[in-house]
Write a structure and sequence with these properties.
There is one protein chain. The protein is of the alpha/beta class. It folds into three domains: about 60 residues; about 200 residues, 3-Layer(aba) Sandwich (Rossmann fold), CATH 3.40.50; about 120 residues, Serine Threonine Protein Phosphatase 5, Tetratricopeptide repeat. The protein is built from 19 helices and ten strands. It has a seven-stranded mixed beta sheet with strand order 6-2-1-7-8-10-9. β1, α7 and β2 form a beta-alpha-beta unit. The longest helix has 19 residues. The protein is elongated and about 75 Å long. The structure holds S-adenosylmethionine.
Length: about 450
């Protein structure tokens, strides 16, 4: 009875759906709080909870899940970096990119964003990051910027050498440049006054919180996100939140494992318009490569004035291989004359890749290619899948084969040039670029 009432209160105040963390977890949190308050009678605690805002705050602190780590899921940060370099910066060379990390927990996410942007070559004065969470305890830790091994779960820890100082006891202190780039805000997503006077954002990370919310909490959050954006923007959700229903203005970005959505500018958001816009976006992304030349100039200029340890080389960003330049996996045209079942295999491989089932997708592509050895599209798909798994070498070989089989394969050439550039083969990339230019004429 009291348990149900407390669960209802938590649902109403912070959107928590008790089923997501389990009633037992909530019961344990309540027992802990009762012990801390020196109470043994649940009825007395329930009365206290309803009348004491600080006690409600304490209980909330006990039930929230602050689980997070640096560069969690990696690909969202890869996509962010490329979005900034290839799209945002060329259009807004003198503007400030506004980013929100919501919720930010103990700070690993917003600090990862700051590092990703610095490594993209953005001048620190050209971006600002707000980071909000309900938990005062988590925010206090975030502001200290001292982290232990649980915060470093990604395999690639090169960034730790560059931005942290090792302290005693396996702890690491984040440097002042990165710490200074994040502005922490305490607040409850469900409060109507939350972030109400904020200047709109260009990019919002809202990861791994909707999974804990009930329907009303999720739909409130989606409305909030819509309001916090400018007319356009880029939204990142957590990997288990990618099925979240979003307004029509939000279009899924087809970058495997990034779980990103573009908010596009459509005053009257009908499905028809969305589809048209989506087509436009896909072809725009295929043209992204053209803009990269300009971007390189901007990036190099910015780098010299930004930070002493810029990292554009692939060695310093190895796992970013991901699928950095994956255009739409589905944008690849179907195979030339495959048998029906083989063609179905390739479609299945694309779908698996889109869903992030990369090993299975790679296997299917290889099987397909063993029966259709001259299919350039299949090699491009396989290359994209390898890229998403971080295997640049295999990816490059696949793109190489695709462009050997079909010398004017535009996507294949784009991927090949970018991979060559990323591993420092500037001469090789230049040759491929010239082939691309010939196609574009
Ligand atoms: C699992 S962490 C996610 C952190 C980060 N976004 C990530 O993906 O690594 C969830 C965070 O949501 C916060 N949270 C839960 N309910 C909230 C609410 N109603 N308003 C603001 N923050 C909330 C918790 O305090 C916790 O720090």
């Amino acid at each position: 009875m009291i348990q149900a009432a407390i669960e209802a209160l938590l649902r109403q105040k912070i959107g928590l759906d008790a089923l997501t963390i389990g009633s037992n977890t909530i019961a344990r949190a309540v027992n802990r709080r009762m012990a801390d308050c020196g109470l043994t009678d649940a009825n007395v605690y329930w009365t206290k909870l309803q009348t004491s805002a600080p006690e409600l705050e304490e209980l909330i602190e006990t039930v929230v899940i602050p689980e997070t780590w640096f560069f969690r899921d990696r690909e969202p940060f890869v996509f962010l970096r490329h979005y900034v370099l290839l799209e945002w910066l060329p259009k807004n060379p003198a503007k400030t990119l506004r980013v929100l990390s919501l919720p930010c927990s103990t700070g690993e996410e917003p600090f990862s964003i700051a590092i990703a942007l610095l490594e993209a070559g953005l001048n620190p004065i050209n971006f600002s990051i707000d980071a909000a969470d309900i938990s005062k305890v988590a925010l206090k830790k975030a502001q200290r910027g001292v982290y232990g091994k649980n915060s470093f779960r990604d395999k690639n820890l090169d960034f730790r050498d560059r931005y942290f100082t090792e302290l005693a006891g396996n702890l690491y202190q984040l440097n002042d440049l990165v710490r200074g780039k994040v502005n922490f805000i305490q607040g409850n997503i469900l409060d109507n006054s939350f972030l109400v006077n904020q200047i709109p954002y260009d990019v919002i990370f809202c990861r791994n919180v909707l999974i804990y919310f009930d329907d009303a909490g999720r739909s409130h959050t989606v409305q909030l996100l819509n309001r916090l954006f400018k007319r356009t923007g880029l939204l990142f959700l957590g990997h288990s939140e990618s099925g979240q229903k979003l307004p029509n203005q939000f279009i899924a970005v087809r970058h495997s494992l990034a779980f990103a959505y573009r908010k596009i500018d459509i005053p009257d958001s009908t499905q028809v318009q969305v589809k048209q816009e989506q087509t436009k976006i896909n072809s725009t992304r295929i043209r992204e490569y053209k803009r990269a030349e300009n971007t390189d100039k901007v990036r190099n200029n910015k780098f010299s004035s930004v930070n002493s340890k810029p990292s554009t080389s692939p060695e310093k960003y190895p796992r970013e291989a991901g699928n950095s330049q994956i255009l739409s996996v589905r944008a690849i045209a179907p195979a030339a004359h495959p048998s029906n079942s083989a063609s179905a295999d390739l479609d299945t491989a694309r779908r698996l890749a889109d869903r992030g089932q990369l090993q299975e997708a790679a296997k299917l592509c290889e099987t397909y290619l063993s029966q259709n050895r001259t299919n350039a599209d299949a090699y491009v798909l396989l290359g994209q899948v390898y890229q998403a798994t971080g295997d640049r070498q295999q990816a490059e070989q696949s793109f190489q084969k695709a462009t050997y089989l079909k010398p004017d394969h535009y996507e294949g050439l784009i991927h090949l040039a970018l991979l060559k550039e990323e591993r420092g083969d500037i001469a090789g990339a230049a040759i491929v670029r010239r082939r691309i230019q010939r196609i574009e004429k």
